[in-house]
TrEMBL record:
The keyword Transmembrane helix applies. The chain crosses the membrane at residues 15-34. Pfam families: p450. This is Uncharacterized protein. It comes from the Eukaryota. PANTHER family: CYTOCHROME P450, FAMILY 706, SUBFAMILY A, POLYPEPTIDE 4, OS08G0547900 PROTEIN. GO terms for molecular function: heme binding; iron ion binding; monooxygenase activity; oxidoreductase activity, acting on paired donors, with incorporation or reduction of molecular oxygen. Keywords: Membrane, Transmembrane, Transmembrane helix. It comes from Prunus dulcis (Almond). Coiled coil: none annotated. The keyword Transmembrane applies.
Amino acid sequence: MNWFKTSTRNDESWLLLYTLSAIFASIWCAWLCMKKSRNKIPPLLPGPLGMPLLGNLLSLDPELHSYFAGLAHTYGPIFKLRLGAMTCVVINSPSAAREVLKDRDVTFANRDVPVAGRMAFYGGADILWSPHGPEWRMLRKVSILKMLGGAALDSFQSIRQNQVRKTVGYLYGQAWSPVNVGEQIFLTSLNVISNMICSGCIAAEDGEERAGLGAEFRKMVSEITGLIGRPNVSDFFPGLGRFDLQGIKKQMEGLVRRFDGIFEQMIDQRLLKMEEEGAKESQDFLTSLLKLKEEGGDSKTPLTMTHIKALLMVCELLFFKT
């Protein structure tokens, strides 16, 4: 009986020894693997220490240029910030910025699409947010040839002159009456761009209807650009995106739905006009896009209706907000 108890104790001791040896061996192997992986991964850039989970979000200053300049004195011209779950690199010197934006622009061309931007531009199917590749090159080529190139802009000179004359005439007719000059300049730009896009004026030509429609359109543009520029928790913590804690996604969906209705109406009217007029040439941007879509364009990266709507949204927001 004593022999049995002694044997059992010896077995338990050996079992404990084997278990501890296995644990220490596992820890040692894990330490070696981590050491090797650390040697392969370059060290992170210097930067201010942040809080757990939040990172440096709470320490950001509204005057970002001054805040970054202060950090550059401490950490150098290139440093990192941790914003929630995102690690950001700040370039704070002309030479480094030139290398990133010019010399190695293709390497740094792609970017994370914010939730509001993805909603506004049809899933990022536009020239602003598309990743660098065949699709982006196709959109860039279409935009330059049909809208932003020198020849395209020169062809719209008569439209610009005509709208400026109409605005001057309207202001002259309102002599001795209060006039919101800024609103009228916006309406003039609105009509110029709408003529360039679809050969038609969005704003009315006179009176309260002109001012009212222009104010409504301007409000929609301001709301969309405001939502895109507003800090969004879902961008800093992608795992929380499904909850839409700030309601930005819901608001953007409503605004994009209104713009999409306008685009659908413009496209339907233009397609009907193209069927009636046949092969008659038209200079506006929308007609050129629809013809490219029908012709197939680049067979590898065809132009789709989603691309057309996304490009129209870019034109509306960039031109009118500027």
